[in-house]
User: Fold this.
Amino acid sequence: MPGNRISARMTKLSFLDLVPVTDTGTISQSLANAADLAKHAEALGYERYWVAEHHGMAGIASAATSVVLAHIGQATSSIRIGAGGIMLPNHAPMVIAEQFGTLEALFPGRVDLGLGRAPGSDGVVARALRRNLASDERQFPQDVVELQAFLAGDERLGIRAVPGEGTKVPLWRLGSSLFGAQLAAMLGLPYAFASHFAPDALDEALDIYRRQFKPSEQLAEPYAAAAFNVFAADTCEEAELLASSQQQAFVALRTGNPGKMKPPLEGYKDSLPPNARAILDHVLQCSAVGTVDDVASGLRAFKARTGVDEIIVASSMYDHAARKHSVALAMEAAKSL
Assistant:
């Protein structure tokens, strides 16, 4: 894993959770499910458990990301827990240093801090968060460097982040654009690409990151991860059905009508008009749907394509038990790597 100038080349598996809320569920139940799933992933051997920051969305319960990570950390004992990610333009760097310094104090050596540049919301929500709507590509790198300084306890800041200073919580740069790859390379940070929903720049971003990487105190050589959707079940038919809930969520989001996660719908994808099916196929092209063998084949192809050090499994499903089974099957399939 990244941190303390180390190198790793065996492919690791981690898990990304948006803490989905179903149309018949509650936020309390979604948070309980997240803790249960994290314990399950830990027992299976997943490297880390990511939680992402999103705001103003009825179907996602991970807005207060650091609080959710504390909940998950308390339910587990060894798996790394990480923000995948914190949308830094929404926050003052000192506040994030304090939050993740607190998490590091609670769960020593288990915390990762992934940083994104998008607001994780629309303009209305962004204004409600009181973020600087004028922030640009120059401000974000400055904020990342300032956050690093707070976590390192840099006296030149003239102010201390307590908790936070001296923890040196490992930072990651998350993104789906070439800008993110360039910044991660320049700062010598591990890089994770959001190919589970924005695959277009995947290959070019990874190439830029590796070619331009500069060693840092945190990382001696490039360490890349990329996200991959997995919908696994005992039969292909069941996996296709389970995947339809996430497919409905993507279509709803792309058509400006996001909401709580809906139950699986048989034949959903085939019921869509051709242009909608094409959009769905494109957005979800980094995915495997099917049995263990199907997922193994998909993971091998994704690994061969990207050469990443870590594959981040994304797998939102309506039924919690089915999701846990899919997570287990994904790890079984990953053994072929």
Summary: The beta strands are 12-17, 48-51, 80-87, 111-116, 171-175, 191-193, 224-232, 287-290, 310-314. The two ends are 17 Å apart (CA to CA). The longest helix spans residues 236-254. The longest strand covers residues 224-232.
